[in-house]
Design brief:
The mean pLDDT is about 95. The protein is of the alpha/beta class. A 5-stranded parallel beta sheet has the order 3-2-1-4-5, with helices on both faces. Helix content is about 40%, strand content about 20%. It is built from 7 helices and 5 strands; from the N terminus they run αβαβαβααβαβα.
Amino acid sequence: QVSQLVGLLSSGASVLVAFDYQPGSSGEMDAVAAAVVDHMMIQGASLALVSTVPMGPAVAEHFIQKVQWKHRYLSGQNYVNLGYIPGGVTGLLSFAESPVRTFPYTLDGQPAWGSGPLQGIHSLQDFSLVLVIVDDPQVAQLWVEQVGPRLGETPLAMVISARAEAMVR
């Protein structure tokens, strides 16, 4: 189903990707997420990266630059790393209600919205897809409960660890 969603993305479609896993899980999570993100990059999607895990922004950057190096995605052109969403439930709810207010700047201090990969994006409903790469069932639940109802017609998909799969289902 996720492959079908990604296959429908047009070139330049904006996708929000949450890298919500710990560096210790990167062996498994990078492997399972690589095919999905590779497919998005082949489709020409523009990516916005976030994380509710403190090390998540670094994990995301490593993933884009090392795991998916062959696509040569450039920060500010093909993707933006918005950084860490602090505050658990409250932070994720704030982001879901107003991503522009929550993250006015990218991780490297540049204005995040209005140009580049986030041109024309004002709310989560403006994304073509929201993909959460997650190793913790409780974090997956937060995305479903706090973000899911605010997406409108935008699909929410997940790439989950084997450990979390049964709980998330």
